[in-house]
Design brief:
By secondary structure, this protein is α/β, with parallel strands linked by helices. The protein has 18 helices and 28 strands. The structure holds beta-D-galactopyranose (GAL).
């Protein structure tokens, strides 16, 4: 059994990393029903027509700063003989590639000695790519520092909580707060971008690579000093810090700033206020690290787009992305045996950071390092790429063009195998390029518009990282459950930050909103008064933004709005199957096995009661009419059953209409919209054929003709219908 916590968990990162463990021994799909064997004759049809991108600073509707849908791969020319480059570019073009990402781990080549720069390999590689109409997204190389750097400046190395210094034989072994590392990073980025400042073949920049992947905490002296500085800037005085952290508890009163430590290991538990600030500090450190690079890149290449990639722990991506033009997900569905809903939730999450996204690394083949994930089945690679587009991606780059022959990732396969022979994955990739050429230009910049939103508040997630209660309490799971419920019922859904405009939505779910503040409670109230339905889950509005309990009765600041008080609660310990359930007034029930809030209505109507135990008959779910809307308090966490039935009930109440009719439950549908056109993505995630019947009046963009009333989709097949 391998868990996402000990395997590398790129895409889903903080969202689902704690959620799923998966068994690698008996893949469920082993029978392969309905799928053709991966040995079809090589497809020799001609090149796709994905036009090379150029950057437009005032792109239509502001969605993207490039003028065409991006299709490509991660390419590492430095890992191959130069004689490979020309045939590589030729084949790429044949597949419809219009952009590749290069350079993100090549610092050692670019600066072989301190202050001596050499970008000639990339000059030559870019020229060859350009001669085939392929542009470049350049990765700044700061995720893989050269040996001379870590040996000459060992203070740049990351330090673990037990004060062991990380060794430098891999990647990401650096401290983002080391002033020396920051300085050397700025220098290499400046040298790189000034060298390429007039090169017309670069369109974008990826800053670093997957910041906080592998490890997201550091206990170096630099981090210690930066943490004190960060706290000083936040609290002003030590007295204020002592007060707000509640340091009278356990004699933790600081009498000098030099006593303020990072949360090193201790015999008993750390202060939750400190732990939350520590996470905010880590996030701010990562953000300022990328902002320094953004500033340099913008100075030399103001027209290019800037991004970074991946989702990992301890980063608030609403802040982290604020200087970027687009954010990029690294999408590896094979970390999960059945990835449809967790991957959809991950894509929804990334789209929510900035409202626009692309894929920098899309899983292509079998994938492993010391471990091995399940391999994509024939057709799944294309399906998953189209799932990203369905959720708003304006570009898809696969990882990687060809599998590496040496090094830590020999088992991470690409479009081409290590022997350079094009096999069925190449064929699938080429098909994808052709299909993207049919939809890309039109789809580019279209948006996923939703009536339903889920509030994502990093503070809440970080509170639960520390005070996790039981292993069954899991905010990440609530997001996946809500996503799955919306997807099954054929609605688009957004995950948004607390800063979003709530009034764009009709229904908002607030999962485990443990921290509440007056601004947020005011926004929720306004949303409800204007006609929205706000459904909050258990143990919400318990503490203030200091992560401290207050003198108010729960739920703090929203008790009047929801028309309830919390009488008491029960946390079930695992194994906790079938501990209780909530019976709803309309005859449906949701099993509950994690948490039970017992509510005391003060004006709200009771719509669900506890079913068992000493809680039997006590109020479990309430609905309060306020203004033109409803504030619903749901006394447990959103498991899949409750997500389904609450959505069904309140979507009917709000008169929401599914995106399309005639689509079986497990077939995914999303809608992107641009100007007056709607683009429906219909994706069959199963290994069986299905029939969908969306009705007449649609144009099938992949087939290039009007769609029939009902369509049969083979295993892993998809359609893009326009209306
Ligand atoms: C990503 C990472 C790549 C490569 C890939 C496969 O998370 O950005 O550099 O490591 O995973 O492991």
């Amino acid at each position: 059994m391998l868990t996402l916590a000990n395997a590398k968990a790129p895409i889903i990162g903080s969202l689902v990393a704690v959620l799923i463990s998966f068994n690698l021994t008996t893949p469920k799909w082993a029978s392969g029903a309905g799928i053709s064997a991966p040995n079809e004759p090589f497809d020799s049809r001609g090149a796709s027509e994905n036009e090379a991108p150029t950057v437009t600073s005032a792109a239509k509707n502001g969605a993207s700063r490039f003028n065409t849908f991006l299709f490509g791969a991660a390419y590492y020319p430095e890992q191959w003989p130069e004689s490979y480059w020309e045939p590589d570019a030729h084949r790429m073009r044949e597949c419809g590639v219009n952009v590749v990402r290069i350079g993100e781990f090549a610092w050692g080549l670019m600066e072989p000695e301190e202050g001596k720069y050499d970008f000639s390999l990339f000059d030559r590689a870019i020229a060859i790519l350009a001669s085939h109409g392929i542009k470049v997204i350049f990765g700044t190389p700061t995720a893989a520092p050269p040996k001379w750097l870590t040996h000459k400046y060992p203070e740049t190395l990351l330090v673990y909580g037990d004060r062991r210094v990380a060794d430098d034989q891999s990647r990401r072994h650096v401290c983002l707060n080391s002033p020396v590392y920051r300085d050397l990073s700025r220098k290499i980025v400046r040298a790189l971008v000034s060298h390429f400042k007039d090169n017309p073949n670069i369109v974008g920049w990826q800053i670093d690579n997957e910041i906080n992947c592998e490890v997201s905490v550091c206990y170096s002296n630099s981090c210690q000093a930066s943490f004190r500085k960060w706290l000083n800037a936040k609290y002003g005085t030590l007295e204020s810090l002592n007060e707000r952290w509640g340091n009278r508890f356990w004699s933790q009163w600081y009498t000098g700033w030099d006593q303020v430590n990072l949360p090193f290991p201790t015999p008993a538990w750390h202060n939750p206020a400190m732990m939350l600030d520590y996470k905010r500090f880590i996030s701010d450190s990562a953000t300022s690290f990328v902002e320094e690079q953004t500033e340099i890149l913008r100075k030399y290449r103001p027209g290019d787009f800037i991004t970074s990639n991946g989702v990992f722990k301890n980063i608030n991506y609403f802040n982290f992305t604020r200087g970027f033009d687009i954010y990029a997900i690294d999408n590896y569905p094979c970390f999960i045996d059945e990835p449809q809903y967790p991957t959809g939730a991950g894509l929804t999450s990334v789209r929510g950071f900035m409202g626009r996204m692309m894929v920098m690394e899309q899983q292509t083949g079998p994938a492993g390092q010391t471990y091995m994930l399940r391999s994509p089945r024939p057709g799944e690679m294309n399906l998953w790429a189209f799932q990203t587009i369905a959720h708003g991606a304006d570009g898809v780059l696969h990882f990687r063009w060809r599998g590496a022959r040496r090094g830590a990732e020999e088992y991470w396969f690409g479009v081409l195998d290590q022997d350079d022979v094009p096999r069925w994955r190449y064929q699938e990739y080429k098909k994808e390029g052709r299909e993207i050429s049919k939809i890309g230009k039109e789809i580019l910049g279209s948006t996923v518009e939703s009536d339903i939103a889920v509030i994502k508040d990093y503070d809440d997630e970080w509170v639960y990282d520390h005070q996790y209660f039981t292993r069954e309490v899991n905010i990440g799971a609530e997001f996946v459950n809500l996503f799955q419920a919306a997807s099954e019922q054929k609605y688009n859904v957004d995950f948004v930050g607390t800063g979003a405009n709530f009034n764009r939505y009709k229904i908002i779910f607030g999962p485990s909103m443990i921290l509440m503040d007056p601004v947020l409670s005011g926004k929720i109230k306004n949303f409800v008064e204007q006609g929205g339905t706000f459904i909050i889950s258990a143990h919400s509005a318990v503490k203030d933004r200091d992560n401290a309990m207050t003198d108010q009765t729960l739920p703090i600041l929203v008790s009047d709005l929801f028309g309830v008080e919390i009488n008491y609660f029960n946390c079930y310990q695992p194994p906790s199957r079938e501990k209780n359930s909530i019976d709803f007034s309309d005859g449906v029930a949701a099993p509950i096995n994690v948490w039970a809030d017992v509510l005391k209505p003060k004006g709200a109507a009771v719509i669900g009661t506890w079913d068992r135990d000493y809680l039997k008959g006590a109020p479990a779910c309430t609905e309060n009419k306020v203004g033109r809307g409803k504030a619903v308090y749901y006394g447990s966490f959103f498991n899949l059953d409750s997500a389904r039935l609450l959505l069904r009930r309140f979507a009917a109440d709000q008169n929401l209409k599914p995106l399309l009719g005639g689509i079986p439950e497990k077939v995914e549908v999303t809608r992107r919209t641009k100007d007056n056109a709607n683009y429906y993505f219909i994706l069959n995630h199963s290994s069986e054929s299905v029939t969908v019947a969306p009705g007449l009046g649609f144009y099938d963009m992949l087939e290039g003709k009007p769609a029939p009333e009902s369509i049969s989709l083979k295993a892993f097949e998809y359609r893009v219908l326009k209306k």
